[in-house]
Amino acid sequence: MHLVLFDIDGTLIKGGGMGGRALRQAFEEVFSVSAVENSDLDKVHFGGRTDPAIITDMATALNLQIEDPLHPTFVEAFLRHLRSNVDTTPELKTCPYIPELLQSLHHDPRVCLGLITGNMEPGARIKLDPFELNPFFPIGGFGEDGFERHLLVGAAIERGRNHYDIGFDPEEVVVIGDTQNDIKAGRAHGCLTVGVATGWVEEENLQQANGSAVFKDLSPENGFASWLNEQLS
Ligand SMILES: [Mg+2]
Asked: Half-sphere exposure (CA, 13 Å, Cβ side) for 92?
C-alpha cells in the first residue's frame, strides 16, 4: 500500500494568485496598512513555502512586528477574503488531467490519498471546494504543522497512519509537487518524490532537485501513470 500526497497550488489547481491577494487584503484589513498594491510585497516568495513562513515574510516587508503569523483574527480575515476570491477568480482551474487522475487513484486498492500543502487546512479546503476535490483527501500535512515544509510531510504520514490504519514506510510514500521545495521536503523523509511542471517552475529546474521523477504534467501521455504503476507493483 502506498500513500500518495499531493501539493495544491501549481499541482492540483492554479489559482490566479488568489492566495497572495487574500493575504494582502487581510494585512490591509487587520493592520490598516497599504498592502494590496504594495510593491514591497512583490519580493516575498510563495512557491513551495508554508503560510506561516509567507505571512512572516510579508509582515517583515511591511515593517510589522507580529508574534503569531497564524493569529486567529488574521486567519479569519484571510479565509474570508480567500473565499470571496475563489468566487471571483475566473482563472481558477484544475491542472491537466487532475480530476480524472484522482478518480482513478481513488479506486486503486494500492493507493491511499492525502494532501501535502503549505496552506492552512481551512484555506486548502476552500481552494479545492469549487472542484469537489476535498472528498479525495481525508488527511494531509498543512501550514499549521510548521514553518518548514518537511515538517508537513511528517505530519501527513502520521495522519495517514492514523486514518488508514497503515504504517507507511518512507519508500511507500509519494510526495508530488511543483517546486524544488516540495521535492526536498519529501527527500528529507526518504519518500519517493515527483516534480510536476504545471506550476511556475520549469521541468529542467525541477530535475536539479534530484527527485525520483519529473513530469511535464500528470497526464498519461506524459508518463506519470506508468511510472506510478511501476512503483506500486
Ligand atoms: Mg505548489
From this structure: 19
pLDDT digits (tens, 9 = 90+) for 125-176: 999 999 999 999 999 999 999 999 999 999 999 999 999 999 999 999 999 9
> pTM value?
0.97
- 179 Cα–ligand 1 center, Å: 6
What are the grid coordinates assigned to 84, written together? 470571496
Distance separating alpha carbons of residues 90 and 85, to the nearest angstrom: 9
In the reported structure, the alpha carbon of residue 117 is separated from the centroid of ligand 1 by a whole-number distance in angstroms of: 7
Which amino acid is it at 75? V
> Is residue 106 within 8 Å of 13, Cβ to Cβ?
no
Find the 6 Cα to ligand 1 centroid distance in Å.
9
> What's the CA-to-centroid distance between 178 and ligand 1, angstroms?
5
- In the reported structure, the alpha carbon of residue 200 is separated from the centroid of ligand 1 by a whole-number distance in angstroms of 8
CA pair distance 166, 157, nearest whole angstrom: 10
* Helix/strand/coil for 165: coil
Nearest of 231, 224, 232 to residue 101 by alpha carbon: 224
- Kindly give the distance from the C-alpha atom of residue 10 to the centroid of ligand 1, in angstroms, as a whole number: 5
Q: How far is 194 from 212, CA to CA, in rounded Å?
A: 6
Give the total residue count for the chain.
233
| CA 126 / ligand 1 centre spacing (Å) | 16
Ligand 1 center to residue 29 CA distance, Å?
26
The per-residue DSSP string of 105-139 comes to: HHT-TTEEEEEE-SS-HHHHHHHHGGGT-GGG-S-
